[in-house]
Amino acid sequence: MKVLVTGATGNTGRHVVSGLLDQNVDVRVLVRDPANAPGGEVVRGDIIDPAEAAEGVDAVYFVWPFYSAAGIDKAVKPFKDKKIVYVSSAAAEDGGFWAEVEEAVRNVTDDWTFLRITGLATNTLGWVPQAKTGKVRAPYGQAKRSLVHEKDVAEMAIKAFTGDHRKQIYLVTGPEALTQAEQVEIIGKALGTPVKWEEQPEQEATEQLGEEFAKSALPYWASLVDDPEPVSLDVATVTGHPARSFEDWARERFS
Ligand SMILES: NC(=O)c1ccc[n+]([C@@H]2O[C@H](COP(=O)([O-])OP(=O)(O)OC[C@H]3O[C@@H](n4cnc5c(N)ncnc54)[C@H](OP(=O)(O)O)[C@@H]3O)[C@@H](O)[C@H]2O)c1
pTM here? Predict the structure, then answer.
């Protein structure tokens, strides 16, 4: 089997590459800058037009790093009838562009697996410069998220490539839902310095995040105060071990 890994320089993709290489799977990576390739056979290109990279591979780790489905049909066409493991979002459940991308994948192959992530632990890396000063000022400290370790996402993908997970939709989460204030506290412990959460008003957050992103992110985080992100057992079921905790993630990153 030969697997094309897109997003190979990213948080999850780099672990997919190393995990597949460890299992002696033939790996090709699609990268925009070959200097950053993490290993495998390198093809330079863009995910919006992956025809050259797709030639001769049997399967693809597919990321679509955009907030719109525009151009998706052209991007998935070269993977017709191949195995596609798509890194989707729990938000696909509610429609929107995530669901459109899943639909486009279903339209080109029956051999698909969707890894629907609630949120990656790496999303919190943006707080780290502030955390080092002892406080993080951000919106919705009481929003509860089930952030997942990027290595668990990669392990799920490797299981999907090496076993039969055809037409499976997995909800990929961490082992518990933690408030954002708790996440910051855990990051502080790993950094070895106490860090406090400071609630940021919506208006200020919108200016910082940009109108477009804030428009969808702020109402979502607000909803998580009373209605936490779900916690799924899919990582444990598929990988055979419990999902890694946010505490372990932070310790690995910062200690
Ligand atoms: N973060 C979350 O909480 C979350 C939740 C649900 C789903 N997801 C999905 O998970 C995917 C993977 O996340 P991740 O954290 O592993 O990735 P990441 O660290 O955000 O990196 C994005 C990857 O996509 C590549 N890329 C960006 N634009 C590209 C283009 N036009 N052509 C080819 N490659 C391009 C980047 O390569 P370069 O080195 O060239 O920049 C990089 O390898 C995301 O794209 C997102 O769709 C994320």
Answer: 0.98
